[in-house]
Amino acid sequence: MPELIRQDVELYYELSGQGAPVLFIQGVGVVGEGWRPQVNALQDRFQTLLFDNRGIGKSAPCRGPITIEAMADDTRALMDAVGWKSAHVIGHSMGGVIAQQLALDAPERVRSLSLLCSFARGQDAARPTPRVIWLSLRARVGTRRMRRRAFLDMLYPPGALQNEDTEALAQKVSALVGRDLADQPAILMQQLRALGRHNTFSRLHELAGIPAYVLSGAFDPIALPRFGRQLAAAIPGARFELMNDASHGVPIHRADEVNRRLIEFLEVTAPRQSAGKS
């Protein structure tokens, strides 16, 4: 089990494939395994790196701060550990915010940015809209079956679960998320607080020259499509796409389509390379 031992945390990571380097960063309450559908599709073309953010999964416990800046520094340290001078960086939700911070801290380390279901301002993710409040309450109260269903409703678009065995689906999704969907670990709230405090919107113009792709889901209750458009507008030259019939869990429930779009973006913005360390 590969680990990077840092002063305040031991970071679990997985390296696979060959080709140009692609770094995946996960969002709130999800371990690196959440990227498995993407890694499986990309590792024949690229060398991929996924990891558990500090304080979650196999990167727990963490003795240091849970902040966006600290998590961005973790990603840079992981790149150093595997010998990458730069990489294509893909982030989902909070992972997209971490990716933005990494690019601001060290633009020379980022070949491109792919920001899925993300935002320009971290506090946008923590805003108390009626739908988010209702989904959050349902994910915390009631039976375990009810809480699992509420979590799935955050990830899937309306109607998508109508003919699904939601308990069987919850088991499949829990293997990617890294926990029973009925549980609410303490790290989740710590990550949300870190996200809510973070705002580098006024600096995103500094990312000019880094190819950027922003993807939103039309039914995402957390990263609303307008937040994706604002994010793309703030990064000079960024490309924005809206995926219909998609929600916050689009890398899971529309994995094939997301993978196709990511591969297209990566291969257009940077030709394939014969080695992942460069």
Structure write-up:
By secondary structure, the chain is of the alpha/beta class. It has a single domain, classed as Alpha/Beta hydrolase fold, catalytic domain (Rossmann fold), CATH 3.40.50.1820. 39% of the residues lie in helices and 17% in strands. It contains ten helices and eight strands. The protein has helices at 36-42, 68-82, 94-105, 130-138, 144-155, 166-177, 186-197, 225-234, 250-253, 255-269; strands at 3-5, 10-17, 20-25, 46-51, 87-92, 110-116, 212-217, 239-243. An eight-stranded mixed β-sheet has the order 1-2-4-3-5-6-7-8, sandwiched between helices. The longest helix has 15 residues, at 68-82. It is globular, with a radius of gyration of 17 Å. The model is unreliable at 272-278 (pLDDT under 50).
Which H/E pattern describes the elements?
Answer: EEEHEHEHEHHHHEHEHH
- Low-confidence stretches are 272-278
Number of strand elements: 8
Task: Look at the structure and give the mean pLDDT.
Answer: 93
Which strand order do you get reading across the main beta sheet? 1-2-4-3-5-6-7-8
How can the largest sheet be summarized? 8 strands, mixed
Short note summarizing the structure:
The chain is α/β, with parallel strands linked by helices and 278 residues long. It has helices spanning 36-42, 68-82, 94-105, 130-138, 144-155, 166-177, 186-197, 225-234, 250-253, 255-269, and strands at residues 3-5, 10-17, 20-25, 46-51, 87-92, 110-116, 212-217, 239-243.
Layout of secondary structure:
Elements: E1 3-5, E2 10-17, E3 20-25, H1 36-42, E4 46-51, H2 68-82, E5 87-92, H3 94-105, E6 110-116, H4 130-138, H5 144-155, H6 166-177, H7 186-197, E7 212-217, H8 225-234, E8 239-243, H9 250-253, H10 255-269
